[in-house]
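Late entry, zinc ion complex.
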Amino acid sequence: MNKNECSCCEGELVWNSNNKAGKDSYQCQVCNLTFNQLAFCPDCKWQAEKIQACGAVSYFCPNCNELKSKSRITFQYQKNGA
Ligand SMILES: [Zn+2]
Ligand SMILES: [Zn+2]
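Prediction complete; structure with ligand written out below:
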């Protein structure tokens, strides 16, 4: 799954800027569910860390020990636990 898609209704997820946890959070306005965006390394499938610098976003894989281009990162959306 590489789209901003609700796992419940397959509707489009909308960026939710009001999340309190400071995580990347997306919301389905149909189901009223929120999802955390998780980034995974395209090479080894480890979870990559988001790094924000100078307005640019990149991802660091601790397993490969290198930065990964955002365009190659695999994103998954994890439903927020109620
Ligand atoms: Zn939905
Ligand atoms: Zn990796």
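Residues 14-79 form a domain with the Rubredoxin-like fold (CATH 2.10.290.10). Will revisit in the morning.
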